[in-house]
Amino acid sequence: MWATAVGVARVRALETEREDALFRDPLAQAFAAAGGLWPSSPPPVDEAARRRRLAVSLSIVIRTKFLDDLLRQASASGVRQVVLLGAGMDSRAFRINWPDGTRLFEVDTAAPLDFKASVLRQERAVTRCERITVAVDLREDWPGALAAAGHDPAVPTAWIAEGLLIYLPEEAVELLLARISAQSAAGSRLGLTLGSRGVIERFGTEAPPGSAASMWVSEMPDDPVSWLARHGWETESHTLRERAAAYGRPISTPPQHDEGPGGLISAVRR
Fold it and tell me: Greatest CA separation found in the chain?
């Protein structure tokens, strides 16, 4: 599944080329090129596939901006530990101006971390914080591996699970959140992206086998604020449409259903 992270890098590279880019990711093009997705992959041949690609690309751009802002706010509040779960080709360690003393942990399996390391060496990339990679499967004892790498649960942490939970069955999502909560001191921050209600029916069922959307299995709960409150988090939920409009990228198509709570989540540990 980690190859989908290269596809995300391609979207970020295309955004970076825009004059009105919502963020700049100088390493994204290198990740996409190394994965064979640059300068472009073949355009979809049918209208449904084209719509699917545009929708997924927009969601990646908006969520990246949303989580960038969350991390900067966390840093401004004094948080100096960051954990990226399922880090993939994330380059925030290299492109965000982190305060002195920030430690950023990238948790993922060995294959994407090794691929990423080869690209970073080739690009001679320089981090803007202390970057620590933790090679472990999230189905295993990743909290133990994270602790062994130096994570301190006694001080606040900013956690990011971006584009991850939609690939996990419901029970795995619950376990992941319980583990995050157990490692989170008061004042910790949490940024999640959740599959909106109905997204699997709209995009996943028509997706070709092997594509990212074909592997989606989990949508957001009906009430994500209450769900996270049960785990001790004070939460704000935003829709993609709301954030896109706020960032100057309004979605022109009308909602296909009654939009409930949104899948862009920011939370603070009580």
Answer: 52
d(CA 52, CA 3): 18
- Distance separating alpha carbons of residues 164 and 119, to the nearest angstrom: 22
| Terminal alpha carbon distance of the chain | 34
Among 77, 66, 79, smallest CA distance to 236 is for 66
For the chain, strand residue ranges (E) read 81-85, 103-108, 130-135, 158-161, 189-193, 233-238, 264-269
Convert the pLDDT of each residue in 138-180 to its tens digit.
Answer: 999 999 999 999 999 999 999 999 999 988 888 999 999 999 9
Tell me how crowded residue 4 is: count the other CB atoms within 10 A of its CB: 17
Residue 97, CB-side half-sphere exposure with 13 Å CA sphere: 2
Sign of CA dihedral 98, 158, 136, 87: negative
Q: How many CB atoms lie within 10 A of CB 93?
A: 26
> Tell me: the pLDDT tens digits for 32-60?
999 988 876 666 667 777 777 888 899 99
Place of tokens 């829709």: 239
Which residues face 193 on adjacent strands?
264
∠ CA 222-223-226 to the nearest 5 degrees?
150
Closest CA to 156 of 265, 69, 270, 72: 270
Instruction: Quickly count helices (H) and strands (E) in the chain.
Output: 10, 7
